[in-house]
Specification:
mainly alpha, two-stranded antiparallel sheet, 3 helices, 46% helix, elongated
């Protein structure tokens, strides 16, 4: 992530994924079938570059409860710049 990314920008990015999830049921079956594999790849890439953090970090700034989707409970493995300052650590990796 770029060093100018803050928790607010990160949340804005996550809200784009919320929009996709909300729009998904309104897409035709053909469009869903055509795009599902692409979305799965994007979601997998996001999972591989983030770790589960429940509500510990982002929860300080945003309400993250059972109604929030899984991506709201993940943060980048390596935090730098403003996002690191906002979330309070530079290394949240599983082994760091």
């Amino acid at each position: 992530m770029h060093s100018k990314v803050s928790s607010w920008k990160h949340a804005d990015d996550l809200s784009v994924r919320d929009w996709i999830e909300g729009a998904w049921p309104f897409l035709s079956d053909a469009i869903q079938q055509h795009r599902e594999a692409e979305l799965d790849v994007i979601d997998q890439r996001f999972r591989s570059r983030t770790i589960d953090n429940s509500t510990e970090s982002l929860g300080r700034y945003f309400r993250i409860d059972a109604t929030r989707s899984w991506w709201w409970r993940r943060v980048p493995r390596l935090l730098i710049g403003e996002l690191a300052a906002d979330l309070g650590s530079t290394d949240l990796s599983d082994d760091g």
